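Here comes just one.
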Amino acid sequence: MLCIPIFGPLVLTIRLIFAWLKRPDMQFHKPEPVLGGTNRELVWWHVPISLKYGWLKPFSLNDVSCTLLLDGKGETELCFRPLQAPGPEHRINIHWGDVRQIPVCARSETDNFPLGFTAPYILLHGAIVDNWLLKPGVARITDGNHYFTFNNLINLDGGKSYGLLIQMKIGQTRYAEKRYTLNVPACTADNRAFALSEHD
């Protein structure tokens, strides 16, 4: 009879341990630049993510979303680059072995650059407003507004460095996060100094 009060907490502890063991760990990889344009005048920074292998851990996470906290700009929702057409995804399922790309920020050296996975389709139907097209030397956060609403766009002032916090969520629960530093050169400069790096 004396063992009964101990049995309940012991079972709960064991369950918590197994829940932790089964919790997949998310891995943020080093940011990667994607070059675009005829003369590679576009630099588009992406953050790759994947799941770490773990003993007894399942190899998938479902209903994953991503938000960005930017110095002085508040919170905005980022999207995932699609594995297949037609366009970016707000929520995804990540399986072990997959590497998914999060487009974060782009900068063009030329005027009126149409940045988007479905840009040709949008252009043909005349639904692009002038301020959606990238202007030379102006960095743009490529969030959900950039892809879907074409307003409330986040353009960044040049000659500054910004602190970025990328947060991954499962449903509404924050799951993992990583800090980065984004260097945006002056508008008259080229893209050589436009860089996204992991925050020390």
In short: The chain has three helices and twelve strands. The radius of gyration is 21 Å. Residues 25-198 form one domain. The CA atoms of residues 140 and 155 lie 5 Å apart.
